[in-house]
Write a structure and sequence with these properties.
The protein is an alpha/beta fold. It is built from 18 helices and seven strands. The strands form two sheets. Strands 5-4-3-6-7 form a five-stranded mixed β-sheet, with helices on both faces. A two-stranded antiparallel sheet has the order 1-2. A hairpin with a 5-residue loop joins β1 (about 155-160) and β2 (about 165). α11 (about 350-370) runs antiparallel to α12 (about 375-400). The longest helix is centred in the first third of the chain and has 44 residues, at about 15-55. The protein is elongated.
């Protein structure tokens, strides 16, 4: 076997060509591998950046501050015809109140809180001292919540005709239950508003000297949900009757049924979903539990709905709209589109920043509309200007998309936005639509906190009850209603309420009924009653 030089001299022309082509192919293959590895490294770096941001960084997705000398998505020259149209410049400035330096003033304690007076007289006060005034100091104190027993006494009388007269028992949330409506309302509120699992509440009751089992509290909660089923169905019907809804979904772990196939289960639980629908007109949300995330879930709920459905772009809603045959029109969410560009900012900071500042202009218009309480006609006019700017920007976005590699985060963000372009522009055509789905995301957020505490629902039936209770808790929060007071009142009133009057009990329309504890005596204990009886016998 000779040297490489000798082999080269003996090689034929065809062998040299084949060797050359082989070397070229080898280099090209190596370049492709390097490029693929570079893309993978970039994607992994992007994922690492997002994870670090989730753990350590700020989570705000609000638009960047807009400066007149910074480029934006809408830096496209206007046509001569549009330049001739008179335009209005909207300037939004953020101002911060400047407080004078010095000793800060102490805020007055809330006037609606009850006061208990404590009078402290000077020691060794001589006789004949003249009272000339008093100094008052108010201190906020706390008394732990107490369990107490309502002792309902109904005197029984024999009338002249021999019949017996006894007053009827007042309405209760559940017959033959020793728990009053206020107790079960507090337990339910603590679980779904304050995210306290029932086992923690058992410990809290124990500290107050009353032993309750976890199963008892769970029965109370389920009983509350079952009691409110008619009201939930009425509120669900009212929400779905609107012509504009927002929709989103979130997960909940559910214990599987006995003997259930565990092929698709994780850690012994089934992954179910809360599908949430919100009516901006009524400002009411509805949680609907479904075992899965397929399009058959919203399809069953929205089978009679007709109007605009605003979503985050999940494909299941596209299938629902297609099968609705024009009955449902989908609107996009700019908050989700903006989020994609925020995530892409770490890999393409300059281009992403330009687009984010452009989206910021859209939100600046919406902020101006809210602050000025613009009329529907004014909203249409302002949003028409935003639509014009968006249509000008679209060719630039499409051109930028073609210049990026497929796996680039910025390309994925552009692809997400351009595929939903018409849906994202729909809000600019109607004054009653919102620019995004943020309101319904805020409604769902407490679920994420709650499931970290109680971990899972005991069954699919329990998950359905939980969905109903979350609907009411979210509605109470939106309308500034104390959920514990609302529950305690509605649980007692609902049996005597006609279905046509159910809307009066919705948290958006509810007013507290008369005091159901009227006529209660001062606090006493059974030991005191026994002592008094003994003294009377003497």
């Amino acid at each position: 076997m000779g040297t490489a030089a000798e082999q080269l001299e003996k090689a034929t022309r065809e062998e040299l060509v084949q060797a050359f082509l082989s070397a070229v192919n080898s280099v090209e293959e190596r370049d492709r591998k390097i490029e693929a590895q570079a893309e993978k490294i970039e994607a992994l770096q992007h994922q690492l950046s997002q994870l670090q941001k989730m753990i350590f960084g700020a989570r705000s997705e609000k638009s960047r501050m807009l400066y007149p000398d910074h480029p934006t998505l809408f830096d496209v020259p206007a046509s001569e015809e549009e330049q001739a149209v008179e335009t209005e410049e909207v300037v939004i400035q953020r101002t911060k109140a400047v407080e004078p330096k010095g000793k800060p003033a102490r805020k007055e304690l809330a006037r609606h809180l009850p006061r208990r007076k404590q009078v402290i007289e000077p020691e060794d006060l001589p006789e004949g001292a003249e009272f000339i005034g008093e100094k008052v100091t108010e201190v906020l104190e706390y008394a732990p919540a107490k369990l107490w027993v309502r002792r309902i006494v109904r005197p029984t009388y024999r009338l002249a005709d021999g019949t017996i007269a006894t007053a009827e028992l007042p309405d209760r949330w559940k017959d033959r239950s020793q728990a009053g409506a206020s107790v079960v309302a507090q337990v339910t509120t603590a679980k779904f508003c304050d995210h306290l699992p029932t086992y923690r509440q058992v410990q809290m009751f124990a500290r107050e000297g009353y032993q309750l089992s976890e199963s008892t509290l769970n029965q109370w909660v389920m009983g509350v949900g079952e009691r409110l089923v008619p009201l939930y169905l009425a509120m669900k019907k009212a929400v779905l009757a609107q012509c504009y809804l927002q929709a989103d979904e979130t997960t909940i772990r559910v214990l599987p049924e006995k003997g259930r196939n565990k092929k698709n289960l994780k850690s012994g639980t089934h992954l179910g979903y809360f599908w949430v629908y919100r009516s901006p007109a009524l400002n009411l949300p509805i949680f609907d539990y479904q075992p899965g995330r397929g399009q058959e879930c919203p399809k069953a709920v929205l089978r009679e709905f007709a109007g605009v459905l605003q979503t985050d772009g999940y494909q299941a809603y596209d299938g629902v709209a297609r099968e609705a045959g024009g009955r449902i029109e989908l609107a996009g969410c700019w908050a989700h589109a903006r989020r994609k560009f925020v995530e892409a900012e770490s890999s393409d900071p300059k281009a992403a920043a330009v687009i984010l500042r452009g989206i910021g202009l859209l939100y600046a218009v919406e902020k101006h509309i809210r602050q000025t309480e613009a009329s529907p006609e004014e909203v249409v006019r302002l949003r028409a200007r935003a639509r014009t700017l968006l249509n000008r920007a679209r060719p630039k976005l499409e051109a930028l998309l073609m210049d990026l590699r497929p796996k680039k985060p910025l390309r994925q963000a552009l692809d997400y936005t351009l595929k939903r372009w018409d849906k994202l522009l729909l809000y600019t055509e109607r004054p009653d639509l919102d620019i995004d789905n943020n309101a319904i995301e805020n409604t769902i957020r407490p679920v994420a906190v709650g499931r970290k505490n109680y971990l899972f629902a005991g069954s699919h039936e329990s998950a359905e009850i939980i969905a109903q209770l979350y609907s009411f808790m979210a509605a109470c929060k939106i309308h500034g209603v104390n959920p514990s007071e609302w529950l305690a009142d509605v649980l007692v009133r609902i049996p005597g309420t006609k279905p046509s009057q159910y809307p009066e009990l919705f948290p958006s329309n509810w007013t507290l009924a008369v005091d159901r504890y009227e006529g209660l005596s001062e606090e006493f204990f059974l030991d005191d009653v026994a002592t008094e009886s003994a003294e009377g016998a003497e």
